[in-house]
Amino acid sequence: MFLADVVGTVVSPVQIRALDGRKLLIVRPVKPDGTPTAKTRIAVDTVQAGVGDRVLVLDEGNGGRQILGDPKAPVKTLVVGVVDYVEGAQGLAYDARARSSRP
Question: How far is Cα 12 from Cα 14, in angstroms, rounded to an integer?
Answer without folding.
Answer: 5
